[in-house]
Amino acid sequence: MASSSCKSSSSGHLSILFLLLLATAASLCALTVTAAGTDDGGSSAATDSGRRARAAATVAELLSVHNAARQAVGVAPLSWSAQIAGYAKAYARSRRGDCAPRRSPLFYFGENLVVGRGRRWNATALAAAWVAEGRWYDHATNSCAAPSGGADGCLRYTQVVWRNTTQLGCARVVCDSGDTLLVCDYFPPGNYGDGRPY
C-alpha cells in the first residue's frame, strides 16, 4: 500500500524527527550488540558474521529489484537508508501479532507492505510482486488496468518507480501466524497529486 498523502504540520515534523532519532539509536544499539556478541551460548562471532552477511545480501537484493524496475523506466536508482530501515523494522515488529499489511501512522514516507503465506518467503520475492504490478500501469494515460479485487491497483508499483524518491529502507519479519510480512518505506514519498511517477 503506497501513501498518497504527506503531513506537513510542524508537530508532524517533530514527531518524524523523534521517530527517526529513535530508529537511529535502535540501529546503533543493535549494531553494537551484534558486533560484541552475547554470552548466552546462542551466538558467536561466526553466527553474527553470518547474520550480517545475510542482511547485507538481502539489502543488495531489495535494491536490485527496485533499481531494475527504476532503470527500465529511466529513473535514478535508490540508495539504502539504515535509519528508514530502522523505522520499517520497528513497525514490522509491531505487526508481528496480527501480520496485517496496514499502513503505518507516519505519512512522512511512502510505504509498501505485503504478506506472503508461510515463513519461506524471502524479501526479494515479496518485493517482486510490487514490480509485477507495472504490467497494468499505462504511462501514456497515467492509468491502471489492474483486475478488480486489486485494492491497491498499481500504487505499490508507482511508489517503486517514483522519480523523486531517492531512499529505501525495508524490514521482513515472520509473524506469530508463521506468515511473512515485508515493509518498505520510501523517501521522499511518491503517489501524490495527479502527476505521473516518471
Descriptive tags:
disordered N terminus, 6 strands, four-stranded mixed sheet, alpha+beta, two-stranded antiparallel sheet, signal, SCP domain-containing protein, 198 residues
Task: Give a brief outline of the structure.
The chain has 198 residues and is α+β, with helices and mostly antiparallel strands. Helices cover 42% and strands 15% of the residues. It has helices at residues 10-36, 45-72, 82-94, 123-132, 155-160, and strands at residues 79-80, 110-116, 137-138, 143-144, 167-174, 180-187.
What would your notes on this structure say?
The protein is of the alpha+beta class. Helix content is 42%, strand content 15%. It contains five helices and six strands. It has helices spanning 10-36, 45-72, 82-94, 123-132, 155-160, and strands at residues 79-80, 110-116, 137-138, 143-144, 167-174, 180-187. A four-stranded mixed sheet has the order 1-5-6-2, with helices on both faces. Strand 5 (167-174) and strand 6 (180-187) form a beta hairpin. The longest helix is centred in the N-terminal third of the chain and has 28 residues, at 45-72. The protein is globular. The model is unreliable at 1-42 (pLDDT under 50).
